[in-house]
Amino acid sequence: MFAVIRSGGKQYRVAKDDRIVVERIAGQPGTMIQLSDVLMLGGDGKAPTLGRPAVAKAAVFAEVLEHSRADKIIVFKKKRRNNYRRKAGHRQHQTVLRIVDVSPTGTAPKFTPTPKREPRLVAKKDKKEKAKAAPQKEQAKPVATETKEAKPVTKSKKETTRKQAKAPAKTKAASKKKSTRDSKKGKGKA
After folding, report:
1. Which whole-number Å values give the CA distances from 121 to 29, 117, 126, 132, 165, in the listed order?
2. How many CB atoms lie within 10 A of CB 95?
3. Which listed site, 68, 75, 111, 181, has its alpha carbon 20 to 30 Å from 101?
4. CB 27 within 8 A of CB 7
5. Distance between CA 39 and CA 56 in Å, rounded?
6. SS3 category, 176
7. Residue (of 93, 103, 122) closest to 56 by Cα position
8. What are the b/e assignments for 27-51, b being 16+ CB within 10 Å?
9. For 94-116, what is each residue's pLDDT tens digit?
10. Separation of alpha carbons 20 and 35, rounded Å
């Protein structure tokens, strides 16, 4: 069985054990809430029941899993040619729900909250102790005793000749520039 509910100005199609994210709803994590704004009921091979505007007595029961905030959106305002720019960010508050039951009569189901997972925080000391206590694996490959002598790296003759050939060319170009500047300074209005 499924239902279409309205929450926070939006409509959601839900069924049992679905997880949905809605706008912030009051309620502590681990508690059950009732969503009574059911717009449509369907499923089980029957014709869907439409409400005008809501189905009478129908309710959807959900468990509050957590409260969180959505991703940041940027609000940017600008008026051209007026040097007016405003930039602001916004994060919408939201609630994560798990649908426990869809009830056409509005009767509440038996509720057992989902167990919370314990955060796995392991101190650095514990990790070091576990590493010491664990048996170390023996190396399968024997260590090579013979080593090849490395030859010193030398530059090829082409590389050294290129650098030597380029260096004098730079100094000649620099000296030519200086001489042309000096000659231009002498020419001019007296």
Report:
1. 22, 12, 10, 19, 64
2. 22
3. 68
4. no
5. 9
6. helix
7. 103
8. eeeeebbebebbbbbbeeeeeeeee
9. 999 999 999 998 888 888 777 77
10. 13
